Amino acid sequence: MVDYLLRSLIIGLGGTVAMDIWALVLHHFFYQPKPNWAPVGRWFLHVPRGTVFHRDINEAEAFSYENAAGWIAHYGTGIVYGGALVLIAGAEWSAHPTLLPSLVLAWLTVGAGWFLLQPGMGAGWAASKRPNPWKVRALNLVAHSWFGLGMWLGALLVA
């Protein structure tokens, strides 16, 4: 069990850090805004209160610690996905990690953002209510590809 938890932690952190490095590259070289995890934190903090879907998360009750909650949710979710990868791919993959299972899981996790988080925050299914939904979708897919690459690198580290 300790081995599973350690692998999940390192693989999930590897993926999430890779995704965050990609966000910094986009910010510094392509002038994209840095991710704002406060609205995600606000959404996560409202879920236990019974509200999953908001018309606009910016109009929902604010919390003084929502930015920290967003970062915790971001990294916590990455670690959970790292654990899922270890369970799904199995012991043989954990001993000899290959890139494809990491990428496939990372691409599947885009669905959680498109069909739960984004509509939950009021952005619509797959950002359909945003002025630039195809740009958001493309950036989501690229960011999650970096997440998959980072999970694979984390898996290599602990193999």
Please describe what this structure looks like.
It is a single chain. The model has no long low-confidence stretch (mean pLDDT 97). The protein contains five helices and no strands. It is 73% helix and 0% strand. It has one domain (2-57, 64-158). Helix 2 packs across helix 3 and helix 3 packs across helix 5. With 159 residues, the protein is mostly helical.
Note the total helix count: 5
Order of secondary-structure elements = HHHHH
The gyration radius over C-alpha positions equals 16 Å
Strand percent estimate: under 5%
Which residue ranges are poorly predicted, with pLDDT under 50 across at least 5 consecutive positions?
none
Strand tally, please? 0
Instruction: Please state the average pLDDT score.
Output: 97
The profile of the biggest β sheet is: none
Structural class call reads mainly alpha
Helix content: over 70%
Which overall shape is indicated by the principal axes computed on the Cα atoms? globular
Tags for this entry?
159 residues; mainly alpha; globular; 73% helix
What's the SSE blueprint?
Layout: H1 2-30, H2 38-46, H3 66-95, H4 99-120, H5 133-158
In short:
This protein has helices spanning 2-30, 38-46, 66-95, 99-120, 133-158. By secondary structure, the chain is mainly alpha-helical. The protein has one domain (2-57, 64-158).
